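Q&A log
Question type: sequence-to-structure
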Amino acid sequence: MSVRLDDLDRKILVQIQEDASQSLDEIARKVGSSKTPVWNRIRRMREQGVIGRQTAILDPEALGLEACFFVLIRTAEHEADWQKKFLAAIRSRPEVLEAHRLAGDIDYILKVRVANARAYDQFYQALISEVKIYNVTALLSMEEIKSTTLLPVQG
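Response status: OK
Response body:
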């Protein structure tokens, strides 16, 4: 269900996505409004679920997490019990930054961030010991070309 947003809402969202630590005064100045209407719109968009939690974006390499793997998973299992066990396994692993169920030949894709290939192998060994997987292909990202959390909200 999409929410109706006007131009001012979208301008506010752009500012919040770029830097959620900005003061209301800064946001209001940048979007050409005053503080109270901006606050009311932010509150409304939070209530509507347009704005979720606010977080800090950390630099993985500064934390020693230099290897990013995209893990393609095919399974022969499609029962609810297997899926429940698999989802619990990947949700409990902090290395898994994203997980998607796919249409097509690959059933799932995971984005996994670890220190190096040895750390990936430890992740892999732990995963396959928890849940039966038919086929796993790990692709090492050689270079991150674009990574953003900014959604295209300009309408």
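Response note: The helical segments are 7-18, 24-31, 35-47, 80-91, 117-130.
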